[in-house]
Each structure stands twice: as C-alpha cells, then as structure tokens.
Amino acid sequence: MNRTHLLFLNVFVIATCGLVYELISGTLASYVLGDSVTQFSTCIGVYLFALGIGAWFSGFLDRQLARRFVEVELAVALVGGFSAPILFLSFAGLSYFHIILYGIVFLIGLLVGLELPLLMRILQSTLEFKDLIARVLTFDYIGALVGSLAFPLLLIPSLGLVRTSLTLGMLNGIVGLWGTWLLRSNIDGSVTGLRVRGVLVLALLIIGFHQADRFTSWSEDRLFSDPVVYSETSKYQRIVITQGRQGFQLYLNGNLQFSSLDEYRYHESLVHPAATITTQPRRELILGGGDGLAARELLKYKSIQAVTLVDLDPSMTQLSRRFPPLGSLSDRSLSDPRVTVINADAMIWIEKQLSPFDLILIDFPDPNNYSLGKLYTRRFFRLLKRQLAPEGTVAIQCTSPLFSRKAYWCIIHSMRAAGWQVQPYHVPVPSFGIWGFALARHHPFQPPDHCRQGLRFLNDAMLPSLFLFPPDLDAVETEVNRLDNQILVRYYREDWTKQT
What's the count of helices (H) and strands (E) in the chain, helices before strands? Predict the structure, then answer.
C-alpha cells in the first residue's frame, strides 16, 4: 500500500470518528433532554454546519499544510475523545448543558471540516483533480456508513458511550502521530514537537479509558441523590440503579421508573383492577415491564397458565439476575416456568401475533420521545384490539394526570378513537405523585368494585374512589395521538417542562 492509499485510509478514519462523535453527543443529549429525534437532528445539523465553516476556514491556511493537518488531527483526538466524559460531567448542570453540548459538536465539526480540505490539498500533486475528488468523497462516505453501523451494533454494546469516545479519540491520535511519518517529506523543520504532543494526547486518552468506569460512576453520583450501585449502557438505554436508606431506585436514561419503597402501589394498581374484572384469566400478555414487577403481581392468580412478556431490551429482562435485590423484589417472576420472555419491539411483534390473550398489561415508560410515543398511538391501539379475547381486559399506565394532564387525556382519547371502551383511574404513588392508568375492553363495562384480598395497598373500600376525578384532574380536550403527528410527545414535554 503506497503513501497515497494510506492517506485515503486517513480520510476513512476521519469520517468514521467524526460521525461517531456526533452520534455520542446526540445519544447523551437525548438521555438528558429527552426527545431523541430532536436531539439527533439538531446535533447532526450543527455538525454539518460546522463542517462547512471548517472547510471555509481551511482556505486561509496557505503554508505548512501537513503540519496543520497533524495538529488538527490531534485536536480532534483530544476534543472528540473526551467529548463523552465532558458531557457526562455536565449532566448535573442542566442550565449550561446545552452550551457545552453544542459547543463540543460545533468544535468537532469545525476541526473535521478543516481536515479533509487540507488532506485534499496535500494530495493534489499526486492525482488528477477528478480522481482526487472521487476518491476522497468515496472514502468519506464509506467511513460515515461504517461509523453509523458500528456505533449501535458494536461500539456501544461492547464499550459503552464513554469508552467509545475515548477509543475513537485514540484512533484519531494514532492517525495524527502516524502522519508525522507519513507526511514527513511535506513537513518543514523538526517533527519532534508534533510527536511529543501526539504521545501526550494518546497517554491522556489511555488513562481516561482505564478510568472510564470510575469517572462515569462519579458523574452519576453527582446526578442522583443516592449512590449508584449498578449501571449499564445497553443498545437501547442507560440503566442506573441507586440505593439509599429506604431502598433502591431504577432509572432509565435518567428517568425514575420505580422505587422499591412504594412500587407495590403502582404495580398493584396496574394489575389487579384488570385481573378482577377478567373471568378466570389464563393467557396473559405484558408489554414492557422488563423489571418483572407486574409479572409478580399477575402470577398471584392460580388460574394463570401462561404469561408472555415482550420487552425490547434484553438488558432489562436480565437485570434481576445481574442485580439480585431486584430478583428478590420481583419474586424472580421472570424465571417462573409459566413466563415466556420475548425481546422485540412491541409494535412490530403485535402486528404478527394472532392468538388472543385474556388480559393485556401495558407497562411502557412514559412517552418522552417518538420511539415511545408510537406505542401510545391510535395505530398501536387498533393493532392491540386483535390481541385481546372478546371478554378480555387491557390495563395501561398513562403518566400523571396531575403533572401531565394533557398527555394523560391524550392517551385516553387515542384509545377511544381506536374503538376501545375506556375507564380511566388514578392512584397516589409517593415517588411519582398522582399517577394515571386506564382499563379498556371491547364492550361497555363498569369499573370494578372489589379486588383481590390481602394486597398491601388496594382494597374493596378504596377501589371505587380511584375512578373518580376531581376538577384539577378531570378530562381536557386534546388531539388524538397518531403516527404522523406524535402530538402526545409534545404534550408530555410541554407539561413536564412546566414542573421543572
């Protein structure tokens, strides 16, 4: 492989690393700010704009192009490599997170935008212009494709976000250091200073890589009120468990999912009203609920013969094995021989499923982004009708009717628009406040007036009150949530933003 081919390989590495840095920024922005579509779109847009600014600035560089190229490559290694650690560090300071996020995105784009024109000018003496443009753009676009595929399929599952950025930074640093030999004939004067800088950058990145777990834990300890006792970055989300004096808490992408102190209120309310009005439930479906806590409540019924649990993330459905206190809390429900766990996208899965269930429990996270919002659309609820037996019941969590009133009633209206008969209800859960649910059936029905005996929270006396809404929680007009408008996500973000 000659010198020219090696320089084209540099183009490939530059494009791959640059795109991965922006995917990391978009992912971390969606963790903190929610709405992954907006965050990815904005980050990529700022990155592309900065590429153009960098290309424009390259026109002002007339001398020592090879030296400038190496210096820029080392700068990309340092800024890009430490981009994820810096963004993790700024998690706790939401007031300035936007500034740091878009500052890093812009700076990486500016530096990468400088690199490619410089490299093309270095190569212009060895190739005709048409061949130079064709090859540079080819390697650039192939590198972008490799980066976009490697990020979700290889890098994040095996390394996590912080180590991914540091690894790509080391790759950029190696390219910069290698350039001091590859471009030696184009660099006037001594290259010792460049090589020393390259070694220092690589040393910093290697140290950062080895300290990544400690750094991430320290950053998350600043973000959460209780110490972090378990953390994992799956292909789909950041999973964090904290523990304090009164129990442990599960967070997904920074959002509280439950506290062991009072989760029984939530899960009893999700499961038992629906199970009470379903005659002898035998085949049940749980969508979401990878923590196993809804399954725990469902398995209290002796008539249950088979439970199918569909959750996208295998890291969630395996969490009770990796974190034993959750296994104890869930009574190891996901290991029960009656339970079948399927890791799949619920919307895709129900399109293919044809055998109806007696009872369906929907325990998805709140619709704070479009990937989750699709699971609360009229389209999804219409698909769900085919999965329920004629006398079966659906129970769904619908966020808080107090803190996110429009989002809650948007879910109710969307279910009714899909042809369901719906009975909304709410319960107090101290960790969340007032929380909303709904029961749904094919035909009109009355709310349950009794429930299973011996529960920690629900009883016959209080059950009817759950279906009564005071004026500050009562129904409001909303649009129906559809796939093509995702109005629910907008309602949710607007409502919860008012609370912060």
Answer: 19, 11
